[in-house]
Design a protein that fits this description.
382 residues; 7% strand; alpha+beta; 16 helices; five-stranded mixed beta sheet
């Protein structure tokens, strides 16, 4: 065991996150790095090389449901009285076969055709937000791009897709913000309120199915599926779509815009080729590689002792693939610290890999294209 309580990389600090120089050192000095969490004493491993991350993300010796590996595991999957336990049983916290079952159901309704058909609706949302910004500017007010556009678009988008009524959006926005807080009491109260609301929406669709045409209805009434989503699974799925869809897209769009601001030559190149959809798509891929939505993967546990590069990751240890580091591995990407919107090929893993590759990746790409293209069009002197 090589982990010590004095970590030379201070990997748990905020300063370590998205730190290119630090990850360059780790890839060179200790690409399979062990550290002891300063508060829990749990052993964590951080993988920073692209090939190691890829192998790890495909390796079934690691997974999410370590509790099921315990001899005294309770086979009861959900505790109906514990709302937080219910909503946490989503795909990101499950392994196969449970993960595969849920994913197969969602894929039947979350299709490429449905996502492509969303383009005009999402474009209308982006333009409406800028119409409001233009009105404020015309009246002499200043605007905050993050608050009025970047933070608003993703939640409006997922609310529209799910079929959340427009009048309920303020509550949805408030709940989403509160669930990201560190105050456990507020988070618990918010989850309870949000769950009550979602149960009402589900009941409305079950009793008045003909009045609704949205993703939530499709998840409830998935045609041709013998093993439909249970009520707890529905709640968990909607929570995942809203919270992950919101936070991930806010990170993605804000990081992408900052990358453009910090690389003015690439911003000008994109502005000069605003009508080139192919360049916009390659630009989105580079934004995902260079400073993608997720700094690292969610925790996975070793189900048995696993050796990587001579280091033994012991059963029960937690492992993270540091996606930000892997996407700047010089063995994979030429000149990896250069932001190049024309980069091809671009084998980034900004949406992770393996069974936990982001189910909403196609939607995220579409939203990214709309957010960036609309910003360039509506603010030409950016």
């Amino acid at each position: 065991m090589t982990a010590t309580r004095t970590d030379p990389y201070d990997i748990f600090s905020l300063q370590a996150q998205r730190n290119p120089a630090l990850y360059d050192r780790m890839r060179s000095e200790d690409p399979v790095h062990a550290a002891i969490h300063p508060h829990t004493g749990q052993v964590f491993w951080f993988l920073t090389r692209y090939d190691d991350c890829l192998s790890f993300l495909k390796d079934k010796r690691f997974g999410k449901e370590f509790r099921k590996q315990q001899p005294a595991h309770d086979a009861t999957k959900w505790i109906e009285s514990d709302t937080e336990d219910i909503i946490n049983q989503h795909m990101l916290n499950l392994d196969d076969p449970a993960h595969a079952r849920l994913k197969s159901i969602v894929q039947l309704v979350f299709t490429p055709a449905r996502i492509n058909n969303l383009r005009p609706h999402l474009q209308a949302i982006a333009d409406q937000l800028f119409d409001a910004i233009d009105l404020d500017v015309a009246e002499g007010d200043e605007y905050n791009l993050t608050e009025t556009y970047i933070n608003q678009f993703p939640l409006l988008a997922i609310a529209t897709i799910l079929g959340v009524p427009a009048e309920d959006y303020p509550n949805l926005y408030l709940w989403t913000q509160q669930m990201l807080l560190s105050d456990e009491e507020i988070v618990h109260q918010t989850i309870t309120q949000f769950s009550d609301y979602l149960n009402q929406q589900i009941d409305l669709r079950r009793t008045n199915a003909s009045n609704f045409d949205d993703l939530l209805s499709d998840l409830i009434f998935s045609e041709g599926i013998k093993d439909q989503l249970s009520r707890p699974e529905l709640l968990a799925m909607v929570f995942l779509l809203i919270t992950a869809g919101y936070e991930t897209m806010v990170n993605f769009t804000s990081n992408s815009i900052m990358s453009l601001f910090d690389n003015r030559d690439q911003l000008r190149l994109l502005q000069e080729n605003a009508g080139d959809s192919a360049m916009l798509k390659t630009a989105i891929e580079e934004m995902l590689r260079f400073n993608g939505p997720s700094h690292r993967t969610l925790p996975s546990w070793a189900f048995e002792d696993v050796e990587i590069r001579g280091k033994v990751i012991h059963r029960g240890d937690i492992v993270h693939a540091v996606l930000f580091a892997a996407n700047r591995d010089p063995l994979i990407f030429d000149d990896p610290h250069t932001f190049n919107i024309q980069r091809q090929p671009n084998k980034h893993i900004g949406f992770s890999y393996g069974i936990h590759h982001c189910l909403g990746a196609m939607l995220a790409r579409l939203e990214g294209e709309i957010v960036i293209a609309t910003l360039l069009r509506r603010v030409p002197d950016l």
